Each structure stands twice: as C-alpha cells, then as structure tokens.
Amino acid sequence: YSVSALARSPVLATVRSLDLRDNHIGATGARALAESPFLSRTCSVYLSANTTGEDARALLRERFGEHLKLS
User: What is the DSSP string of 7-60?
Assistant: First the structure.
C-alpha cells in the first residue's frame, strides 16, 4: 500500500497518533497526508527519517503544526 492510498482511507478519521517514521515517504506521500480530510483528529504525526522535501514539509507543518514530529 502507498501512503497516498492510506491518506484517502476513512479509517484515518479514528487515528490519534500516526507513526510513519523511516518509511521512504517522499513528497507525493507527504502532500497526500497534508491534504487528507481524514486526519483532523490526529494529535501526533511522526515522519522523521523520510525524504519528503522542504515544500512538502512546509505543507505538513501548516496542516499539523506542533503535532508534526520530523526529528
């Protein structure tokens, strides 16, 4: 499964903590997570050790703010 497919899953609406550290997530997957309508209740998003790129990281920071953990 891809992160983009995960981001489209309604199951994420129940997720409070999402740990995707070291999963080879690139810019496309990071953008999909940032744009997912199902992550509104998420309190923690762990994405360290991925190659998301600076533009995608900016989108993630904008979406998740202090809940985003990149290191």
Answer: HT-GGGGG-SEEE-TTS---HHHHHHHHH-TT-TT-SEEE-TT----HHHHHHH
